[in-house]
């Protein structure tokens, strides 16, 4: 093309008047008091970040804007930032925001009838759900405008951002004047995971983690954030050695427990939140710390190696009172970073796969859902009132119900809160907002207090939508979502109970030769375990978890101790095995035979017999992670049942098993006092104290026997009252009842004794039979009582697995052996003395001459002449003291 032609075309294009795209070109720029006002958005939901700048009376500019998409999102104006003002707000622009934004910049025109003085709060608002994604307060700023960022800096805003992995970022701002760096860690991870970031030891090249100075951040069980200073000495969990030293990934405070925490833990938490499945923690640390041993100096101008990791974390326990980062499982790395260089390669918001952090409550047909109110701490759909609805002590949880299954509500939220289930996500009676709604359950009558709750039942049917909302009839946005699903566990199983502390639901169906069992946790965990037994020791455990490949697993174990080495895998015959995790809620199912097919004692699991006619003792535990290979302390539970539940399989009910060890201890002491001391002492008095002057032996005998019998009856009544009944299903009870019957027979026998023969006369046959009966019955009672004491200790050990029972049993045996030695000595002494008296034909008895010490049961007693030796017959009898 000729040059003259190009010049002509250029002039032609220059002279053509093209339309101007600036939407605010005709708008005045000086009338607004907010001219040049600039501020960051406050993030509320959907990972919203950005900067707003007021251009003129008619428009504003949004830059560096990030946001996850919503359903019907608009620019919104309101008179205040509380729930009432925001829900009563208005559209300020016809521009909508219905897609995901990634570091975008654009200009937003106001509606023609909207002016800046009408807007006190400018928000990004999702209209159908009345959700505030983010906002800026305009009411607190002066006429001068142009406020500095530092005056209103948001905790989520930093000068720099670096991508560490697809789901992990670090943001930071350097304050060289104060020699401090502010760091923000942001990751799309679960609430049970930690985020770690720090500096590697510059003197180490082959093992970057060892010697590293890192911050471990995360969220506690109640949702509060934490950030702690850690030092790495070994690739392992923090372990406390026998000498008190520690090694592994340990807090700085554990290395120097005597130092002030401020000098050792120099990681200072600033802010933290969980939003949309993304964890965000902001903390600050000095560039140079006073702790030169466990903190590394950060050179702001040098390229230094930083290390990072994310993974599961175990909460503190009584043995190790600090957070324990678990194996990061491949989510770790390192890079070279100069914190003085400006970096921002974070394009767009993090988008987590699982955005639902709220607790999940699954309703079943037997356990009522307790509806109450409490403070709004982590309400999932802001803005919200200060008081919201709680279900089973969980704040605004996601409620899941099943079609065809009745849901029981125990409403005790107060007379000013009426529960109802509606199609409106806001609640508070939609007709007052000129909106329509469908009410599926509840109304003005669904109110009550704790002292007088209202019990109501709702049965979702096939016409109930998949998603509805439980709300208050009078105040909007107090409740949350109700997921309506097709029938599940309560429909599949005939019986269900809530185990200890209402943290695990147990379902079962009995068949002729098998039982089908399901268990579901009521809180998020990495694994769920149920066990058959009164405690962890000597229990049969079933552990359900989802492995790294996403496959649900159920494994069986025999546990005979408290260490990981005491958890032994077994090979139980389980069928129809299933395990799944939904929002961190573990559900496991399996079917097993009532009686294993193997012979008893062949393997530990062969003794795991389920008898439907007897209560089944069930315990549970939850933990962060499980492994089918090598178990260690990282597989320990973080929540467990406080006591076993006695599940009545045939009746479909359960009751908490009380710890009766104090009761049984009192019962055992009373029985030992009677059968181990008083009653044997009474027998010894009758046998070896007849040489005592007057009737003293008889009084001692009677007093000891009646005292022992009284204590026996008190111990018996105490045990029966505390155990709420008496059953003869144990060896101990059978021995005890037989011993009591024999003991009771003695005073009755004494009352019916025949009259003693006069001096010089031969005892009647009835008298001799009575004496034999009285002596044999008493001695048999002592033997059976001793057997009852031994079997009682064994019963206590079998019931509770107490480690002290074995020692107490041996102590009791030693006690009775000592008693037997004393009897042998007294018997020998008595025999020697009797022979001496016979040889000398002397009567040395110091009594009244009517009571001799010759044993009726001794067949070798001398009796050659009735007249001469009639006075040497022994009298063994019980007579009243007034004789």
Description:
By secondary structure, the chain is α+β, with helices and mostly antiparallel strands. It has 5 domains: 115 residues; 178 residues, Sandwich (Immunoglobulin-like), CATH 2.60.40; 103 residues, no CATH class; 164 residues, Cellobiose dehydrogenase, cytochrome domain (Immunoglobulin-like, Sandwich); 212 residues, Four Helix Bundle (Hemerythrin (Met), subunit A), CATH 1.20.120. The protein contains 11 helices and 47 strands. The strands form 9 sheets. Strands 38, 39, 40, 41, 44, 45, 46 and 47 form an 8-stranded antiparallel sheet that branches. Strands 13, 14, 15, 18, 21, 22 and 23 form a 7-stranded antiparallel sheet that branches. A 6-stranded mixed sheet has the order 24-28-34-33-30-31, with no helix packed on it. The longest helix is centred in the last third of the chain and has 36 residues. 35% of the residues are buried. The N terminus and C terminus are likely disordered.
